[in-house]
Design goal:
The complex is a heterodimer of chains A (about 500) and B (about 500). With about 500 residues, chain A is α+β, with helices and mostly antiparallel strands. Chain A has two domains: about 240 residues, PmbA/TldD fold; about 250 residues, no CATH class. Chain A contains nine helices and 23 strands. In chain A, the strands form four sheets. In chain A, strands 1, 2, 3, 4, 5, 6 and 7 form a seven-stranded mixed β-sheet that branches. A six-stranded mixed β-sheet of chain A has the order 12-11-10-15-22-21. In chain A, strands 9-16-17-19-23 form a five-stranded mixed barrel. In chain A, β1 and β2 form a beta hairpin. In chain A, α3 packs parallel to α4. In chain A, about 60% of the residues are buried. With about 500 residues, chain B is α+β, with helices and mostly antiparallel strands. Chain B is built from ten helices and 23 strands. In chain B, strands 7, 14, 15, 16, 17, 18, 19, 20 and 23 form a nine-stranded mixed β-sheet that branches. Chain B folds into two domains: about 230 residues, 2-Layer Sandwich (PmbA/TldD fold), CATH 3.30.2290; about 240 residues, no CATH class. The chains are: A alpha+beta (about 500), B alpha+beta (about 500). The interface between A and B is large, with 95 and 111 residues. β3 of chain A pairs parallel with β2 of chain B.
């Protein structure tokens, strides 16, 4: 099929992704079964670069079981290639027509890569295909019932789990043929607790990894079974209903942020602004731009944007939701050093953006399913580990706050400022953790926070972030984020 | 593309098959076909670019079957779905899945029952259903042309960014149940939202356009409006942190309602005890100036549907009346679960929106349609500025989230475009974008509304399911923080 695409007049490049996602899922609320199921979805996506002034045309579609025999697939893929090609040709023609009005319009150029032929098998101890739906439902029902019973103040407890295998075949006119499979298992816990007459305290959190069912038995970043993880989150939520709300401050204070909190922090103020498509303004109307790159002459590359203690990188080769061997353009994924000792070094990219920036392609293009278009996504994007014991970092604080576990972010358009709420905030007095507060978080200008980091812990972890939204239509992607404990300065935020 | 007749035949023949199966008490079959076309724009005057970056589409179809089974003296319920197989074989496969997936759910009471006749009839545009690839691409370039022409005419041709998209959504569905529901729906939606900037001036403008028919759709106007708005905000000033009287423009009103208010008046938030309006039914939650309702049957509105994905005719559901909470958005499942706790909320908002269409493989969730915001005594837009006298006109906000969880009501957001200082009841200097963060509680904002404009426009925001017929709203005492001091 890919040869057919390559034979079309003025077709410069084409790729086809064909994949199957097999998933089992179950959920329960308050000890009551709510649902379960087992589904397999097949879909494909085609990208064609064609026309005199080459431009993109895309087409995607889901397929049914009846269409999944070779003859039917061939027929449907041919239709899809022809649609994508027609769009590319029409687009290229218009681009040429508009060139006089818009001089920066340019034929698409892709940075070169070595074509690969490879097969990657899913890794798991407990095969998701062998987990029974009944077992999954019993698991959810028991956990949600158990945590509902933790306290009379628990108003709602919901648990859902999924496990499965995603397999995707990639072929391009350049000769790549890659067959990759990854397992995925995730558990989500949502708990609401409320004292009579009080404001409900809400907590939801995830345990998950690109592994088999063993993930929910304790082979995860928390090193806890989903039941123990849910019970812990529930006890914390109940405890918070008795805590005072954190008073906001008008001036920055010393804050120590734990690895779970830093997972969202690195996601928002390092990961997103170092996506090349965002730096090149393609997300201006949606997820925003990047303060790190205004234009080719005016940008932060090679400049100090963070404390010399701070290094951040994105690495698909390590375990986590952002793990893979090849991205969805067939480029081998590799570690990208984003910030080295405080200096901005690079962006996550795809082949088109690498060519524009003059950087080597680093394999950071992904889509949530084959029928969606790949865009630049974080992989496992993290603050690098340091060498200081977290207990020592806290013990050195005379007057400050310990910011524990992330909740919800709100970030400025170019990621230059953030407000992120925490599940818990503790006062630190004379090096000791004291009073617990609820409804708190921190806010700061991103550069100020990064520059003020004066301690980096040695407790590096990568957490599952299951819901990173980007693109149009929005693609909600799983990525890995994390880091060690950090100490910096920020204003406290509270309940308004 | 699957035609409506094929969907209707599938569900009608399917229900006959299911009714004959052992242990079946009730059943509901839903079948759909959807196509979502997106033309993404990206023009950057100083960076090599494509203008129209990508014309793309994704389409999917399938059927979903919900079955109530006998189980001893009680019942069990199961859901099964099959993608891209709207045939008798697909029904059999979905039924086998439903049987395998059945559970005892004590909160399930009954499938939906017929509830009146739909208001809307044949309201889709066949021209959109048959839209060709060249036309799709052309819509994108028209949006770009609107912005480029406006910038060129005003001699701005460097440091220009134009982004956004044109979206074309085609949906067909049919549903039949043993409770007597036998309905179908076919709709077309065209939307565009274009954002453009003169980056060296740090100004950004927004334009948007919506229609159910191709003939009434004008992406060029949206592009032009975005450029005009950006040019108008050149020379923006910072403000200091403090409490201000503000006028929220249509996009911020839509953003606040889409991300905070409407989720808080959904029965799904009541179900999870995660709303600031828990146990507030019948109580005052907002200024008496405010009325809010959902209405999925407004002719020509892009959030309209003939029927819900549960086969219930769409219509008006009052949510806030003269400042009092009078209703919650509901689907059949939660409406019946809570009918003995509150009252029976009409289950008009059970939809299966997912991945850009009415998706066969999920069960109905609660989704808004067209959210209409009205004032008790509405005023012309200009009068809103007089009402606040001195303050800020906020034209576009971004990243609005319930930062401490929905139940706490706290939200935060940044002002990114289209905004001005207001002095003596008139628009004064522009506000510098990306320099102000809003930090407030939604209950305070709703209670501090002082006026609502008469003029409304269908408005959408990124990621939102609903369309808001949005007025401009004047609010007193909004907390604004000066941010990003290191950005020049």
């Amino acid at each position: 099929m890919i040869q057919h695409a390559g034979s079309l007049k003025n077709c410069k490049y084409a790729d086809i992704r064909l994949g199957i996602h097999e998933t089992k899922h179950a959920n329960a609320e308050d000890g009551k079964a709510k649902g379960l199921g087992e589904d397999a979805s097949i879909s494909f996506g085609i990208r064609v670069l064609a026309g005199e002034m080459s431009a993109w045309g895309y087409y995607g579609q889901s397929l049914g079981k009846g269409e999944s025999n070779p003859k039917s697939i061939r027929k449907i893929l041919t239709l899809g290639i022809n649609k994508a090609y027609a769009r590319a040709v029409a687009n290229a023609s218009k681009k040429a027509e508009f060139k006089s009005l818009a001089p920066s319009l340019t034929a698409v150029n892709l940075a070169g890569i070595v074509s690969c032929n490879d097969t990657i098998n899913a890794v798991f101890d407990e095969d998701p295909r062998n987990v029974s739906l009944k077992e999954m439902l019993t698991f959810c029902t028991k956990i949600s019932g158990d945590v509902r019973g933790v306290s009379k103040d628990v108003q709602y407890a919901c648990v859902n789990v999924q496990t499965g295998i995603n397999r995707e075949l990639f072929c391009s006119t350049e000769g790549s043929c890659i067959d990759q499979s990854y397992a995925l298992t995730q558990g989500m816990v949502s708990v609401v607790a409320q004292k009579p007459g009080g404001i409900p305290e809400v907590c939801y959190d995830y345990a998950g990894d690109l592994r088999g069912w063993e993930v929910l038995k304790g082979n995860n970043v928390y090193k806890q079974s989903l039941g123990d993880f849910a019970a812990l989150r529930t006890r914390e939520t109940v405890e918070l209903t008795e805590a005072e709300f954190l008073p906001a401050t008008t001036e920055p204070v010393v804050v120590v942020t734990n690895p779970h909190f830093n997972a969202l922090l690195v996601h928002e103020i390092v990961g997103h602004p170092t996506e090349a498509d965002r730096a090149l303004k393609l997300e201006t109307a949606y997820a925003g731009r990047s303060w790190l790159f205004r234009d080719f002459q005016d940008n932060e590359l090679g400049k100090q944007i963070a404390s010399p203690l701070l290094t951040a990188y994105s690495d698909p080769s390590i375990q986590g939701y952002g793990h893979y061997k090849y991205d969805m353009e067939g480029t081998p994924g590799k570690r990208v050093n984003l910030i080295e000792n405080g200096i901005l070094r690079g962006f996550m990219n795809g082949r088109e953006y690498a060519a524009i920036l003059g950087h080597p392609p680093n394999g950071s293009m992904r889509a949530i399913e084959p029928h969606y278009v790949p865009i630049v996504r974080m992989t496992n994007t993290v603050f690098a580990n340091g060498d200081k014991n977290p207990a020592e970092i806290i013990s050195e604080v005379e007057d400050g706050y310990y910011i524990v576990n992330h909740r919800i972010p709100s970030i400025s358009e170019s990621r230059e400022n953030f407000r992120i709420s925490a599940q818990k905030v503790f006062k630190i007095e004379s090096g000791k953790i004291t009073k617990l507060f609820r409804g708190g978080g921190i806010t700061a200008d991103s550069k100020d926070f990064l520059m003020n980091v004066d301690a980096v812990g040695n407790d590096f972890e990568v957490f599952p972030i299951p819901n990173c939204g980007k693109g149009q239509p929005m693609q909600v992607m799983r990525v890995g984020n994390g880091g060690p404990t950090l100490r910096s300065r920020a204003r406290l935020t509270g309940h308004q | 593309m699957i035609d409506l007749e094929a969907l209707r035949n599938c569900v009608r023949n399917g229900i006959d098959f299911v009714k004959k199966q052992k242990d079946v008490i009730d059943a509901e079959i839903f079948a759909s076909w959807n196509e979502h076309i997106t033309v993404r724009l990206n023009y950057t005057s100083d960076i090599p670019c494509n203008g129209v970056h990508e014309p793309k589409s994704t389409q999917f179809s399938g059927l979903g079957l919900f079955v109530v089974f006998k189980a001893g003296k009680g019942i069990k319920v199961g859901f099964g779905s099959v993608p891209d197989n709207v045939t008798a074989k697909g029904v059999v496969e979905a039924f086998q899945k439903a049987r395998k997936n059945k559970v005892y759910d004590p909160d399930f009471k009954s499938l939906p029952v017929p509830a009146g006749k739909p208001v809307l009839g044949n309201y889709h545009d066949p021209a959109v259903m048959d839209i060709g690839d060249e036309t799709i691409v052309d819509l994108g370039w028209r949006g770009l042309k609107g912005a480029l022409t406006e910038y060129n005419q005003n001699h701005f041709n460097k440091s220009i960014i134009i982004g956004g998209d044109i979206a074309v959504i085609k949906e067909r569905m049919a549903i039949v149940s043993t409770k007597g529901i036998d309905e179908f729906d076919e709709s077309t939606i065209l939307t565009t939202s274009i954002t453009s900037m003169i980056e060296k001036e740090s100004v950004k403008g927004t334009g948007w356009n919506t229609s159910t028919h191709l003939a009434g759709f004008d992406p060029e106007e949206a592009g032009c409006a975005s450029a005009k708005s950006a040019i108008k905000t050149i020379g923006g000033e910072r403000i200091s942190s403090g409490t201000y009287n503000v006028v929220f423009g249509r996009q911020p009103v839509t953003d606040l309602f889409t991300n905070i208010v409407i989720p808080a008046v959904s029965l799904s938030s009541v179900n999870s005890s995660d709303t600031p309006f828990l146990w507030k039914l019948g109580k005052k939650i907002a200024s008496e100036s405010l009325n809010v309702y959902d209405d999925g049957a407004i002719k020509g509105a892009v959030g309209s549907k003939k029927i819900s994905c549960e086969g219930i005719p769409t219509g008006r559901t009052d949510l806030i009346h003269n400042g009092f909470l009078v209703g919650f958005l509901a689907n059949n499942y939660l409406s019946r679960k809570f009918e003995n706790v509150f009252v029976s909320f009409p289950p008009r908002n059970g939809f299966r929106y997912h991945n850009g269409g009415r998706n066969h493989n999920i069960q109905p969730r609660i989704c808004p349609t067209n959210i209409v915001i009205e004032g008790k005594d509405e005023v012309p837009s200009q009068s809103l500025l007089s009402k606040i006298n001195n303050g800020i006109y906020i034209g576009r906000i971004w990243y609005t989230y319930p930062i401490n969880g929905l139940a706490a009501g706290d939200f935060t957001s940044t002002i990114i475009a289209d905004s001005f200082l207001v002095k003596g009841g008139k628009i004064d200097k522009p506000l510098k974008p990306n320099t102000v963060r809003i930090n407030n509680n939604i209950t305070d904002v709703l209670n501090n509304i002082i006026a609502v404009s008469k003029d409304k426009k269908q408005t959408i925001v990124w990621g939102g399911k609903e369309v808001v017929l949005a007025p401009e709203i004047a609010v007193q005492g909004v907390k604004l923080d000066s941010i990003a001091g290191f950005i020049s």
